[in-house]
Amino acid sequence: MDSLGHLLQGFAAALSWYYLAYALAGCVLGTLIGVLPGLGPAAGTAILIPLTFNLDATGAIIMLSAIYYGAMYGGTITSVLINVPGEAASVVTCIDGHAMARQGRAGSALGIAAIGSFVGGVLATVALVVVAMPLATLALKFGPAEFFALMVAGLCLVVGLAGKNIVAALLMTVIGLLFAMIGLDPVRGAPRFTFGVEELYDGIGFVPVVMGLFGVAELLLAAEKRQARMIEAELKNWMPTRQEMRDCVGPIGRGTVVGFVLGLIPGVGAIVPTFMAYVIEKRVSKTPERFGKGAIEGVASAETANNAYANAAMVPLLALGIPSSPTIAVLMGAFIINGITPGPFLFQEQPALVWTVIASFFVGNALLLILNLPLVGLWAKLLKIPFSYMCTGVLIFCVVGAYGLKQSLFDVWVMLGFGIIGYLLRKLDFPIAPAILALILGPMMEKSLRTTLEISGGSFAIFLDRPVALALLTIPVIVIAFLLFKPRSLDKLRESDVD
Amino acid sequence: MLIRRRTLLAASAATAIASPAMAQNYPRRAVQLIVAFPAGGSTDVGARILAGLAEKDFGQPITVVNKGGAGGQIGFTEIARARPDGYTLGFLNLPGMNTITLDPERKAVFTIDSFIPIVNQVLDPGFIWVKGDSPYKTLAELTDAAKKNPGKISACTTGILSDDHLAILMVQEATGAEFRIVHFDGGAQQLTGVLGGHVDVAFDNVGSVFKRVGTEIRGLAVTDVVRSKFLPQVPCTKELGLITVISSSTRGVGAPKGTPADICKAVETAFLKAINSTEMKEKMDAVGLALKPMVGAEYAKYYADLQAQAKKYTEWALKMR
Amino acid sequence: MRQGRLIATGAMLAFCLFALWQSLLLSLTDRLGPGPGFFPFWLALIGAALAVGLLITTFREPADPADAETRIMPHGAGGKRWLAIVALLAALTMVMEFTGFRIAMLVFNAALVIAMGERRWWIIAVFAVLGSYGVYYVFTTWLDVLLPVGQIGF
């Protein structure tokens, strides 16, 4: 009850005009960062930190959190409209979000993304209020061994994305993993597959690769077809229809749970929850064949999971002082500069401040929804711009984005190369998403396995001692084996379903 | 090919630019300050505070550019390769930078002579800590246990060949203890690892965790000749009799080799003034980073001495793998 | 289409075999289990096996008459646009280091808009200037994102 009292006081503070203005400014700036190329959420948040120097601690944190939420949402817009995910969290949104836009349903896609984000964010914050401390401590038990198992499970879920051709999906996964091996070995620091090129020491950049595989490839396909617009379909509606809303209740609910649970574990990153939520929806769905071709459930689940993750990631930060992603690390740095060190003692030392901040999470999520729903129509109208202009605009966007993150022209070459590869793969109907998931998860998987072995002194028996890790490791292996060796009977099953 | 062309152009540009006329009206435009670690880390926090304060006297904007990755190697390479015209400066992290040049497997294209150390900002001493409910109450208890059961007690670093890694080797050398060394990527993973009970002891730096010392974590020692002002209750290694266990993360501003001396001097003046200001002190106290201003011969000597110390332990570490 | 898939799978097989050879140059084991070459080696091996499997299944597939109509490489008038985008992007990346972002982008934007069929000079000019000098100003001044400044000072 004490918490509730504090929370109410927090709301009173957060809802003052003064703080509302900062939250609003933060949401707008954050969304812009998410939309603009060349600024990842981490770097974007870092450059906005000086803006908060002249505020009091509460105001500063309210504004920074709003920037963070805004940045997480901004990537959705470019994903849906031009098939360019600004960061890892939006890759999954591209799959069905852009497909919807091609059918003239960009408004529905953006609308459901805003609504799903709001619901996921608010529910995750409620859970944060109720169970922050015990859950955060429990999540610490998730060590490198469990982490490795989670990464393996995540990669195995890739087959869930595959349509008919599971072998092709697995091959793309392995190719993605091989690309992830480029760079310095995570344990010894020895260069691998770098051929003396210094730019490769840090590995192939994720942003130039996705900008190429998604954005540039999309342009090349459209250019070849001599389209007059990026998207030729007429815009159907600005908002999700009633039926669409009804279809998304389940995905939003499940997306919230997946995003929240995985958000508690430090270091997981946003892509795993979005992917898992998406694959779960595809498995649950009665019509899985619509996924990848504009299923609104796909957008709803991924975006909800993304925002639930973003809010849940605040739990380890506030409860334990552990930043679980680079963006949160920047946020934590800003908190510290403003004289607030997140951690267990924060709840005891400055309860008023903590609860105001938590209240402002609710306010931030609500503002983001109010801000974005009316803008959906405006964003969708961008698709009416003639192709020649759009093409030039998108290419400027991609060049700045690929170059800006590391100030490296090498990355622009990478983007161009992967643009051509992406074009060919799309034409030949090879699945691209598994390769991207693998590119992100590969290094985390290898590093966590080798850390596990450092802890166990080289013994693999550690996995047998840890039930969670063992379960995470065995279940997906069984599923894959089943899918690989029984594809015919499954196909028959599906066909009979359609009949 | 790209690289070779860039080096050539940089070299020709350097000869054209290194005329006294250029130095007199330095700086004429914004200066880049390269930080070889991602935004949000200790180096980055210190660099952003420094850039913000030094800008005022400098007369031109100072832009912090994060070039993280490969334990700093990417960023250091960038600094070493930059045009030596004073418009690209960088943070030099010791001893992380030294160990990269000393490990032949890393194939670094720079040596420590590729940089001119200009002014030091921070000396963040090493800090050995365990979880609050750990059975080890003192450093001696820990090292005795690690001596009796060699290889059973796990100790984690913030990265391979980081200052923390060297500190573990120093403790092993001085006490005969033998730890099972686990390399994490940075402080957040370390915190998760030790608080979650996956690893027994963390070799870390004062700045990242000093506020947590108390119930949550127990400080065993600060690897310095004096106690840290942020942790007056924690003994330093010198008073514990471990005089060879002196390790820290030192960070200062440097320029690529070939930068004209008068430009370096201008940078030194502006940055040193910022480092010595009260505003700097207040901000750095809040984040637990101890200032250690060093310039000229003092900094150059420190820079050279550290190379010798790092060489010894890096060679040892390389032999162990 | 089938032929294209065969070629692409063959290329992936070659890539995996190359990675296999490269990973053998790294040590497979370390003091504690897997070394730097461990993951690349096994991945490349699995990848090669999958690629061979895919080659065989693709080869066995009956030729689809509809496939013959979809050409893999760009062609015709659309192909010219395709080529214009790729060539201009490559040229842009090549010269940017020397000319700097602004000049390279100015020419790139103008050329691209023209190649995509725009003929009104004022629209071309607006794109060229806003997309180069405008973008440069916004990103370097307001957003702290550095864009290339050329060797000739722009």
Task: Compute the number of helices of chain C.
Answer: 5
Shape of chain C: flat
Give unreliable regions of chain B as ranges: 1-22
Number of domains of chain B: 2
Number of helices of chain B: 12
**Termini gap of chain C:** 47 Å
CATH class category label of the largest domain in chain B? Alpha Beta
Assembly annotation: heterotrimer
Radius of gyration of chain C: 24 Å
Mean of residue pLDDT values of chain C: 85
β-strand number of chain C: 2
Helical content of chain B stands at 40-55%
Secondary-structure element pattern of chain C, one letter each: HEEHHHH
User: What is the fold-level CATH name, i.e. the topology of the largest domain in chain B?
Assistant: D-Maltodextrin-Binding Protein, domain 2
Distance between the amino and carboxyl termini of chain B: 34 Å
Could you list some keywords that capture this structure?
heterotrimer, B: 321 residues, alpha/beta, D-Maltodextrin-Binding Protein, domain 2, ten-stranded mixed sheet, 12 helices, 10 strands, disordered N terminus, C: 154 residues, mainly alpha, two-stranded antiparallel sheet, 69% helix, 3% strand
Describe, in short, the structure shown.
The complex is a heterotrimer of chains A (499), B (321) and C (154). By secondary structure, chain A is mainly α. Chain A has 24 helices and two strands.
Structure, described:
The complex is a heterotrimer of chains A (499), B (321) and C (154). With 499 residues, chain A is mostly helical. Chain A has helices at residues 2-14, 17-35, 41-48, 57-82, 91-102, 106-139, 144-156, 158-161, 166-180, 206-224, 242-247, 249-263, 271-284, 296-312, 314-320, 326-337, 344-349, 351-381, 387-406, 409-427, 433-456, 462-465, 467-485, 487-498, and strands at 183-184, 191-192. Chain B has 2 domains: 2-124 and 249-320, Bordetella uptake gene, domain 1 (D-Maltodextrin-Binding Protein, domain 2); 126-223, 3-Layer(aba) Sandwich (D-Maltodextrin-Binding Protein, domain 2). Chain B has helices spanning 2-17, 20-24, 42-58, 73-81, 96-102, 139-148, 163-175, 187-195, 206-209, 261-275, 278-287, 296-320; strands spanning 31-35, 62-66, 88-94, 115-131, 154-157, 180-183, 201-205, 217-223, 248-256, 291-295. Chain B is globular. Chain C is mainly alpha-helical. Helices cover 69% and strands 3% of the residues of chain C. Chain C is built from 5 helices and 2 strands. In chain C, helix 1 (2-24) packs antiparallel against helix 2 (38-60). Chains in contact: A-B, A-C, B-C. At the A-C interface, helix 9, helix 10, helix 19, helix 20 and helix 21 of A face helix 1, strand 2, helix 2, helix 3 and helix 4 of C.
